[in-house]
Amino acid sequence: MSAIADHLRAVRSDHGEITAHCPVDEWDFAPRYTDGVCPICGWRPPGPRVQLPLAARVDWFWPALVALAIVSAAMAAAVIFAYVRA
Ligand SMILES: [Zn+2]
């Protein structure tokens, strides 16, 4: 068995999730949710880097808040326009 396989015991769980085993602190983690590193010590498993797509990495709070404000202003303008024209 290779050294990489010794350190990275990649296991697919029932949900198809790949987990890695940190040899430093004996912790199993899913690299997909921890930016590819151990959440305790920062150890990075060997092999290809695991990274989420851009849409999953972006914090959508402020873009969603801006979109909500724009839609609210447009709706307010539409209501005022309809009220004035009626
Ligand atoms: Zn660790």
Describe the overall structure:
- The chain is α+β, with helices and mostly antiparallel strands and 86 residues long.
- It has two domains: 1-52, no CATH class; 53-86.
- Helices cover 40% and strands 12% of the residues.
- The protein contains three helices and three strands.
- It has a three-stranded antiparallel β-sheet with strand order 1-2-3, with no helix packed on it.
- Strand 1 (11-12) and strand 2 (18-22) form a beta hairpin.
- The termini are far apart.
- The structure holds zinc ion (ZN).
- Zinc ion binds next to loops.
Topology (SSEs and partners):
Layout: H1 3-7, E1 11-12, E2 18-22, E3 27-29, H2 54-57, H3 61-85
Antiparallel strand pairs: 1-2, 2-3
The structure holds zinc ion.
Residues 22, 24-25, 27, 38, 40-41, 43 line the site of zinc ion.
Cα distance spanning the termini: 80 Å
**What hetero molecules are in the model?**
zinc ion
User: What is the strand content?
Assistant: 5-15%
- The spatial strand order of the largest sheet comes to 1-2-3
Radius of gyration: 23 Å
Mean pLDDT: 83
Query: What is the tally of beta strands?
Result: 3
* Count of alpha and pi helical runs: 3
Q: How would you sum up the major sheet?
A: 3 strands, antiparallel
